[in-house]
Amino acid sequence: MQHLLDIKSLSNDEILQIVELAKYYEKNVVLGTQKRKNRGSVALLFFENSTRTRFSFEMASRKLGFDVFNFEVQKSSLLKGEGIFDTLNNLNAIGCDIAVIRHSQEGFIENLSKKSYAYNLSLINAGEGKKSHPTQALLDFYTLTKHLGSLEGKKIVIVGDVIHSRVAKSNIELLSRFNANVVCCCPSYFEDWSLENASYEANLEEALKDADAVMGLRIQKERIDTKIPYAQYINDYQINEKNLPEKAILMHPGPVNRDVEISSSLIDSKRGEIIIEQPRNGVFIRMAVLDLIFEGVQR
Ligand code: CP
After folding, report:
1. Burial of 211 (0-12, 13-18, 19+ CB in 10 A)
2. In angstroms, what is the C-alpha Rg of the chain?
3. Residue 53: CB within 6 Å of ligand 1?
4. For a Cys staple, 54 with which of 50, 59, 127, 277, CB 3.0–4.6 Å?
5. Of 10-19, 143-152, 188-197, 285-294, which range is least confident?
6. Is the CB of 278 inside a 6 Å radius of any atom of ligand 1?
7. Cα 129 from chain centroid?
8. pLDDT tens across 181-196, in order?
9. Chain centroid to CA 130: how far?
10. Whose CA is nearest to atom 6 of ligand 1?
């Protein structure tokens, strides 16, 4: 792999290879830290806010022995009018091998991947607009398979703001590739009918029947101009102790709007524990992605 742009550009074999390597790093984190020192350099360029993704890429980079640099947009020469390609090309010339990028604009990272860099720069999508968040989908896949085994025929219910969620889009693409039965559940104002491989069930009780996993989605306030009827939404779509099926595991990519998409008491109960396992799994998945990209590119 030269870049990681989206799920579409990964083969099923590559996805399974990432998962296998993540498993290895989960068991051998210390070895991962000791094995390689000063392998290369990773730049983190986050144009949108992040806690989990940015920190887990930084943690993964350090555990692999990469040097890691946080690009501060507000203190950079972008504010003097320099373009993003020139910025990346200069970071590459200074010594960065991999740039991890989060941006609000769809197609931003793919466009940058088509440019020619002075010293072979690799790009990783750390969340782009409403369209894609491939490493989140990979860590969710890793988490699901750890708890459920094969996803063949498993019912995964995604509840919430589908239309504004890059996590939902990347997950639907990945999970359906492994023959999971993905059902989205949301009010009509959160439906996105352009998605292939997802069915909708508007009624939460109906959607949750026989679910193997339930994934809550955050209402993406920063991407919504209209007023959301929160009280009605909570009444109709909140996941809580009463409606979460007994056998289903509960997930959420974070950050969670407590008592909106999931009740606070459920998050803090035993059944909420996988939500806090997900960012931990994200470190192992991001170690695997960084490793495969670095090893796969002639430098
Ligand atoms: N899930 C996720 O992308 O979280 P952050 O925005 O905190 O990185």
Report:
1. buried
2. 19
3. yes
4. 50
5. 188-197
6. no
7. 12
8. 999 999 999 999 888 8
9. 12
10. 50
User: Under CATH, which architecture does the 134-275 domain have?
Assistant: 3-Layer(aba) Sandwich (3.40)
Look up residue 166 and give its two tokens.
């890059």
For domain 12-132+279-298, the CATH class is alpha beta
Choosing from 50, 55, 136 the residue with most ligand 1 atoms within 8 A of its CB, the one to mutate for a pocket test is: 50
Q: What is the pLDDT of residue 298?
A: 58
Of 51, 132, 167, best ligand 1 pocket probe by most atoms within 8 Å of the beta carbon: 51
Q: How confident is the model at residue 63 (pLDDT cuts 50, 70, 90)?
A: very high
* Domain extent listing, the chain: 12-132+279-298, 134-275
What is the total residue count of the chain? Answer: 299
The answer to whether the CB of 253 is under 6 A from ligand 1 is yes
Question: Are the C-beta atoms of 102 and 53 separated by less than 8 Å?
Answer: yes
Tell me, using a 6 A CB cutoff, whether residue 220 lines ligand 1: no
Joined together, the tokens standing for residue 10 give 């990964």
Confidence (pTM)? 0.96
Average pLDDT over residues 24-41: 76
Residue 185 φ then ψ, to 5°:
-135, 115
